[in-house]
Each structure stands twice: as structure tokens, then as C-alpha cells.
Write a structure and sequence with these properties.
The complex is a heterodimer of chains A (about 110) and B (about 120). Chain A is mainly beta and about 110 residues long. Chain A is about 0% helix and about 50% strand. Chain A has strands spanning about 5, 10-15, 20-25, 35-40, 45-50, 55, 60-65, 70-75, 85-90, 95-100, 100-105. The N and C termini of chain A lie far apart (about 35 Å). Chain B has strands at about 5, 10, 20-25, 35-40, 45-50, 60, 70-75, 80-85, 90-100, 105, 110-115. The radius of gyration of chain B is 13 Å and the shape is globular. In chain B, strands 2, 4, 5, 6, 9, 10 and 11 form a seven-stranded mixed β-sheet that branches. A four-stranded antiparallel β-sheet of chain B has the order 1-3-8-7, with no helix packed on it. Classes of the chains: A mainly beta (about 110), B mainly beta (about 120).
Chain lengths: ~110, ~120
Amino acid sequence: DIQMTQSPPSLSASLGDKVTITCQASQNISKYIAWYQQKPGKAPRLLIRYTSTLESGTPSRFSGSGSGRDYSFSISNVESEDIASYYCLQYVNLPWTFGGGTKLELK
Amino acid sequence: EVQLVESGGGLVQPGRSMKLSCAASGFTFSNYGMAWVRQAPKKGLEWVAYISYDGGSTYYRDPVKGRFTISRDNAKSTLYLQMDSLRSEDTATYYCTTERHGVMDAWGQGASVTVSS
């Protein structure tokens, strides 16, 4: 199974900050990484697929990059509605595996 | 608009069975693979099972192999998860998701399953 190591587990930011979350796969995942946002009590929402492709409705302040084993997800100009947990997912091979999650809080 | 509505969750004793359903609407259900993902209380997300668009292929994570069965009825646009020999570690919210172009995109609101005596 491919392990996804996501960091940091938690992040504190002020409104307007830029934040970055990283995921490292245990092997090359050929850009098959997606990023999800989950607010408390809600289902996850897909934000980005295939490393950097924004889903319809995903604000342009969200972005993704990376290759091989190393990937990152960024939010520029953090807004209050971005306060949530974020998860990466590798989908190159079954079993699909998620990172451990990052909880974004307001400073 | 894609809608996925799970049902069938609740409290169940260890060793017993439970069947979850997921009613789909707003898209051509029979064209897409489907999956179940679970989330234990205050924990992260964990993929559980996948079924191809026609039900011809199924895959499971190791801890549920032989205990869980994913199935679908394309005529009813409904996905199922039969869970047998339930354990306390199966306690979670279970989400059904669509799989399109390899990624799980639309998600239901979740069904809570608690395994406890």
C-alpha cells in the first residue's frame, strides 16, 4: 500500500496569509493526487485533482503542485470560510490512501 | 445536481450485520464507479470499497475483506454496503462517493454506524 505522509497536522493562520500543506507518498504516484476540504460535521469536498486541476467552483486562491513523491497544496489570502481540515489522497493505485489530514485554524 | 443520500446506519452489536444504502440522483448512475469511504470519530478518512460502473469489479481494503460486500443496482440507482461480523473498529461515518476519472468526487452526507454492546 502507498503511504501518504501529510504535514503539518495543524496550522494556525491569520486572514490574508498564505499557507502550504505537503504530502509525501511512499512511492512515485505520477501526479495522481487530489485534495479535499472538510468542514466540521460535513462531507469532504473535492477541491483539486491530478495535482493541480481545480474543480468547478474551487476558488483560484487554492492551488496544488508537485511530482514524483512530493506534493503541496496552498491557499493564498486565507479567508474565514477556508477554516477546515484538508486531506490529500493518492489514487494511482488501489487501495486509495489519504494523508492524515491538516486542521487549519485562525490565529 | 448530483445527490447521494445514505441510509441504514445506527447502533449494532459486535458480530452482527448491517446494510447501508446510497440513493443516487442527478447523474447517470450506471456510467460511474462508486466507492465507500469511512471516518472514525475524530479521525481521518479511509477508503473502504470500490465497485466498477457495471458491478463487474470490486475491491476492498484488507481489514474488511471477507466481511463487507459492496454491490449496486443500476436500475434503482442505488449503491449498497453489506457489513457482516462487525467490530468496534468499524465504528465510523460511512460516505458513499462517485468515482469519475479515477478520483472520488461527489460525496453523500454520511451514515453513522456505531458498533457497541
